């Protein structure tokens, strides 16, 4: 079952999943978002959405009500498209550690919510995600997807790898192929089997090829919709990965193994 592990729910989930079907994707993992650049119709509207995105990835605080509203979009899409979708649960940025369990319980108790993410710590503060890894470990090791592109830094990626070593039962997925630090991420993953790489938003095809060659069982297909296109992402993966058995791992097998499918 081909799975897109990194897609933010859009304002038109039916059209989003039709595009996934055109890419030969059977199942899409939907992540919440407070930003919807796909609805912008003018340059000023695009700028406004990307200004919000810059604040989010820069570590702007997310209040519980904002995150609940964003998760509501995910839940409605999951209910409208059963079988074709799974979801990850997000969290407010300032939630005290002792409240993490209460926050995640109603989400993780659902069979269609299978992980946590996308978590976006402020640049230079990746260590802040450790309580979420501890919670995941206590819940049998549900996968966690973390932001891997700028403005997060190479030191943040190194921190993710160190946390993965501390919590070996937790599949930790670094999003967007580590952004500008793709090759360093591949090296980190080679030393840490539970550190996984989402291949979405790759800046170079050779980086996808290098990841799939060096750590084939740790690479996961993703589109980063709406910032990437799922059809283009599928073409990139197939262009970069010549070995059909590795391609199958990346598109299907690795995430199925993480979920225990």
UniProtKB/TrEMBL annotation:
GO terms for molecular function: hydrolase activity. Keywords: Hydrolase. InterPro entries: Metal_Hydrolase. This is Amidohydrolase family protein.
